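Go through the following before class.
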Amino acid sequence: MGDADAPKIVVSLPEGWTAAPAPAGLSLTGPDGMSGAVDITETALDPATAFEKYSDDITASAPISSVSVLPAENCGYSGQRLMGVLSGGARGTENYEDRIAHVWTNTKDYLVVIHVAAAQGSPAFDAATSVLTGDFAITIP
């Protein structure tokens, strides 16, 4: 990521997963068609508004969707855990789980998103999400 002010995070990868650079962070690839992403993007929104916008954007990606929201503060930063199903879109029916955090620095605010997705019924999804969306280290440059 090219933003020198952006926070750096450390995410654990489950066995069999790989990570590759992506414009806003990392693209994640897992076994059995599972996928994910780590995105760190600047935001001018307060935490509640940023979380609501993210949730609205992800559920808008499919004609039928559901989302459950749990609090998930991390390192003193506001955070949420989102879990749900996206159905009827180009990727068929898939489960997703996200860990999101609103991270402030001395210069800017950022939305950190860890997203994991798999075909509905994927037997390894729960194990992968427990590793990927667990607490993560945050370093402010």
Notes: The chain has a mean pLDDT of 93. The first helix runs from residue 47 to 59. The longest strand covers residues 92-104. Helices lie at 47-59, 125-132.
